[in-house]
C-alpha cells in the first residue's frame, strides 16, 4: 500500500476513533461520580458532547461516513447522554432514593426511545425538506446538559430547594418528557448568522470560552435557560414554515417581512372592535349567565 493510501485509511478511522473516545469519556464520568468527584464527572460529559458534535462533521469532511459509523454513534449517544448523566445524577444527588432511581431509569430509557425515533425518521423520505432543520423533541446532548442542571446549581450555590429529592426527581421527569415529546426544536447548526454579525459571534465565543474556565456551573445554567427559552420560538418558526412551505428557501429577513405583511393584511383593529362590541359568549357560558329573554 502506498503512503497516500495508508494516510487515507488513517484519516478514515478518525471519526470512529472520536466516537470511541466519546464513549470512554461518558463511562469515565460514571467512575468519577462513584469516586465523589462530580466536577470531573460533569467535565467528562461535556467532553463526550464535544466529541459527539465533532465526529459527524469530521466524517462528512473526510467523506468517511458509513452505516457502521452511524450505528456506533447512535449507541454512543445512548451511553453518553442517557446512561451516564442518569447514573451521575443518581449517585451524586439521589443515592438513597428509590424514586430517584426510577426517575433516572425513566430518563435513560427516554433517551434510547428518542434515538430510536430519530434513526427511524432518517429513513422517512416522505417528510418535507424543512423538517430536516428541526429535531423532534429535545436532542440527546441538550437533554444531558439539562439533566445535570441541578448538580451544576448544587456545585455553584451549595444546597437549596434545587437539591431536594422532589425537585431533582421532577426535573428528571420533565427532561424525559421533553426528550420524547413531539415538540419541534430548531437545530443549532441550521441557524444562519448574517455576515455583519460575524465579529459579534466571535466575541460571544470568546466570552463563552472564558466563562467555561472561570464560571463553568453558571455557564451550564445559562445554557439550559437559553435553550428552554428558545423552544417557543422554534415551535413558532416550525408552524410558520409548515403553513407557508414556499418560503422555506427564503432568508430569515424575508420571513420576517412576510410575517409583517400578513399581519398588516389581516383586519386586526376591525376584528378587535367587533370582539369588544359583542359579549364574551364563552365567559357568559362559563359563569352560567345568559341574555335577558333567552
Kindly report the spatial arrangement of strands forming the biggest sheet. Answer: 1-2
Q: Give the C-alpha Rg.
A: 24 Å
Largest sheet: 2 strands, antiparallel
Q: What structural class should be given to the helix and strand makeup?
A: mainly alpha
Give the ordered list of helices and strands.
Answer: HHHHHEHHHEHHHHH
Topology, number of strands: 2
> Could you tell me how far the N terminus lies from the C terminus, measured between alpha carbons in angstroms?
94 Å
Uncertain segments of ≥5 residues (pLDDT<50)?
A: 277-294
- Average pLDDT number: 80
Binned, the helix content reads: over 70%
- The total of helices stands at 13
Assembly type:
single chain
Beta content:
under 5%
Could you describe the 3D structure shown?
The chain is mainly α. It has a domain at 75-261. The chain is built from 13 helices and 2 strands, in the order αααααβαααβααααα. The protein has helices spanning 3-12, 14-34, 38-61, 67-93, 98-122, 140-147, 149-157, 165-180, 198-214, 216-243, 252-265, 268-277, 281-287; strands spanning 134-136, 184-186. The chain has a two-stranded antiparallel sheet with strand order 1-2. Helix 2 (14-34) runs antiparallel to helix 3, helix 3 runs antiparallel to helix 4 (67-93) and helix 9 (198-214) packs antiparallel against helix 10. The chain starts with a helix and ends in a 7-residue tail after the last helix. Residues 277-294 have low confidence and may be disordered. It comes from Mycolicibacillus trivialis. It is found in: Endomembrane system. It is a multi-pass membrane protein. One of its GO terms (biological process) is phospholipid biosynthetic process. This is CDP-diacylglycerol--serine O-phosphatidyltransferase.
